[in-house]
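Journal club prep — side note

Before the paper discussion, L.F. wants everyone to see what a predicted structure for a comparable chain looks like in token form. Sequence:
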Amino acid sequence: MKSPLLLSLLASSLILVGCTSSGVVPTGPDTYMVSRNIAGFATTGDGKAAAYKEAGAWCAAHGLVFVPVSSDFQNPQIGSHMGHFDLFFRALRPGDPEIHRTQIEAPNSIQRIEYR
């Protein structure tokens, strides 16, 4: 039987750490997404850095070149909602003509509703 103290410590540590990943998800030809949920005292910057590292490592493990395409984020608000950081990227073979210096773009439209 687990003690209530142990369970509360585990729950507290999950709130403080606060970044969980979707893993690499295909979204189209040679295009993928990594999404990081952000909760507790983690920041959007933490989620962003983790998503870029995960995407870059995934591409390197598959012998591909990581090319960021766009990103989106929402900051967490403690007691209200978790935040998120979504990174869309291409994973291309070395030498692919689509590899070039990129500018990260925001999605064409974002619709958010905030309750206060």
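L.F.'s comment for the group: The radius of gyration is 17 Å. Keep this in mind when we get to the figures.
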